[in-house]
Write a structure and sequence with these properties.
Strand content: 5-15%
Radius of gyration: 28 Å
Structural class: mainly alpha
Oligomer: single chain
Helix content: 40-55%
Order of helices and strands: HEEHHHHHEEHE
Number of helices: 7
Distance between the termini: 64 Å
Largest sheet: 3 strands, antiparallel
Strand order of the largest sheet: 4-3-5
Length: about 240
């Protein structure tokens, strides 16, 4: 079995379970045998993700996996095997989390496994489509956590996002902090923009402050209470102190 290229929790679990076959085995119920046919761990993982297998048989396997997660005896290999069975459903999301939120791959994997085990613990005997529910819940839970934890990112200039880096002209530049009001739909992060004073933005923001002699003391733009607040902006002189 080829192992994923990212060292981390998933790789460790893959190595641990490469030749594992814990007892008692999971059993496959397709209606032909009331006792079910025993499956090796490798056969079970192929079966639970095989869309050609009937839904009821795959659901029965996921119910057994949830039971193993709850009832595994001390010293059993089943706790790790339960995680191994869920990796195919989690791996793509781990990559997307790592790239989209610029977090360590190992951190993304650890959070996904935590959410996966929590979702398995919620599976009951009558839960429909337990496999789909568990994987969706684990992935959405990890996404929600990293969205909440997304830190403020300070940028030197908005043009950096387009690939053009700002060339500052000595000490003569202005900095602006843009802080959107909080929204119930998600995080509103502060954005810091730095522009040279000779640019139009610098002229507009700095001309009055210079003319009035308050360039070193201008702190923010006050919200007068009329209309809808769109942001709070602070203005300060950049460069060396003193």
């Amino acid at each position: 079995m080829s192992l994923p290229p990212h060292p981390g929790l998933f790789s460790l679990v893959e190595r641990h379970c490469a030749d594992s076959d814990p007892a008692p085995r999971l059993r496959f119920f397709d209606g032909s045998d009331r006792a079910g046919a025993p499956l090796s761990l490798q056969q079970a993982r192929r079966t639970v993700y095989d869309r050609s297998v009937c839904d009821s048989a795959r659901a029965a396997l996921w119910h057994q996996i949830a039971e193993r997660a709850r009832d595994a005896a001390d010293g059993s290999d089943w706790p790790t095997a339960v995680v191994w069975l869920g990796l195919p459903g989690l791996r793509r999301t781990a990559g997307k989390l790592s790239q989209g939120f610029r977090v360590e791959r190992g951190e993304a994997e650890a959070e996904l496994v935590t959410c996966y085990l929590e979702a398995l613990a919620e599976v009951g005997p009558d839960t429909p489509d337990p496999g789909g529910q568990v994987v969706r819940s684990a992935c959405s839970g990890a996404w929600a956590l990293w969205r909440r934890a997304l830190p403020e990112r300070a940028v030197e200039d908005v043009e950096i996002t387009g690939g053009a880096r700002l060339q500052q002209a000595g000490d003569d530049f202005w900095e602006m902090d843009y802080a959107p009001p909080a929204h119930g739909s998600g995080l509103s992060a502060n954005v810091r923009i730095t522009v040279p004073a000779h640019r139009a933005e610098g002229v507009r923001l700095g001309a009055l402050a210079r003319a009035w002699g308050v360039a070193d003391t201008a702190a923010d733009v006050r919200y007068p209470g009329r209309g809808r607040q769109v942001a709070v902006m602070s203005l300060r002189r950049g460069g060396r102190k003193g």
